[in-house]
């Protein structure tokens, strides 16, 4: 036991080791640090508010409610009326999934502008979205009752495939 007592450091030695240690000797910088993230919750809320501000009419709560109604009423009798009121108020939506839903209204006055919008945004879509657009157009080309819609879908599909 005497050997252990001789090697045991006293408190002064322990304090010296702490001062030399990288862990214990580290001192916190006071003031804002550039490395520290800002309050992400507040930053996210500010960014959302700015995005809505620049969206204009499409950044309002009314838009969001009507937009959600499109998705909720898909497959019901109200769907065409909701889509028509949305387009009259806000124009065509910007996202592909909603555009593909709107095609199912079977109203040529709505379908043809949607085809044009899909043709415009096709280059910037993700690969999965491109496949969805091609699949929807090929289904319309084969199964739609209207000859005009079939022809237009086939024409746009060929153009999209040629551009790819």
Provide structural commentary.
The protein has 164 residues and is an all-alpha fold. The chain has nine helices and no strands. The chain has two domains: 41-91, no CATH class; 95-164, no CATH class. α4 runs antiparallel to α5, α7 packs parallel to α9 (147-163) and α8 (127-143) runs antiparallel to α9 (147-163). It is elongated. The termini are far apart.
Q: What is the fold's blueprint, element by element?
A:
Layout: H1 2-7, H2 11-20, H3 40-55, H4 61-72, H5 79-90, H6 96-102, H7 108-121, H8 127-143, H9 147-163
Question: What are its keywords?
Answer:
elongated; 164 residues; mainly alpha
In short:
By secondary structure, the protein is an all-alpha fold.
**Rg to the nearest angstrom?**
31 Å
Q: Specify the helix fraction band.
A: 55-70%
**Elements, N to C (H/E):** HHHHHHHHH
Domain tally: 2
Structural class: mainly alpha
Number of helices: 9
Amino-to-carboxy terminus distance: 82 Å
Indicate the proportion of strand residues: under 5%
Summarize the biggest pleated sheet: none
Average pLDDT figure? 81
Shape descriptor reads elongated
Q: Report the strand count.
A: 0
């Amino acid at each position: 036991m005497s050997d252990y007592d001789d090697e045991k450091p006293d408190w002064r030695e322990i304090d010296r080791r702490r001062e030399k240690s990288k862990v214990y000797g580290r001192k916190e910088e006071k003031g804002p640090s550039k490395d520290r993230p800002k309050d992400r919750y507040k930053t996210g809320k500010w960014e959302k508010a700015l995005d809505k501000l620049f969206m204009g009419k499409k950044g309002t709560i009314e838009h969001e409610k009507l937009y959600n109604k499109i998705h909720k009423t898909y497959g019901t009798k109200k769907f065409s009326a909701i889509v028509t009121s949305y387009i009259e108020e806000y124009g065509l939506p910007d996202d592909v999934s909603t555009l593909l839903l709107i095609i199912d209204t079977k109203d040529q006055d709505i379908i043809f502008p949607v085809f044009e919008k899909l043709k415009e945004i096709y280059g910037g879509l993700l690969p999965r979205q491109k496949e969805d657009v091609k699949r929807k157009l090929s289904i319309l080309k084969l199964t739609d009752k209207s000859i005009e819609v079939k022809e237009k879908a086939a024409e746009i599909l060929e153009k999209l495939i040629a551009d790819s």
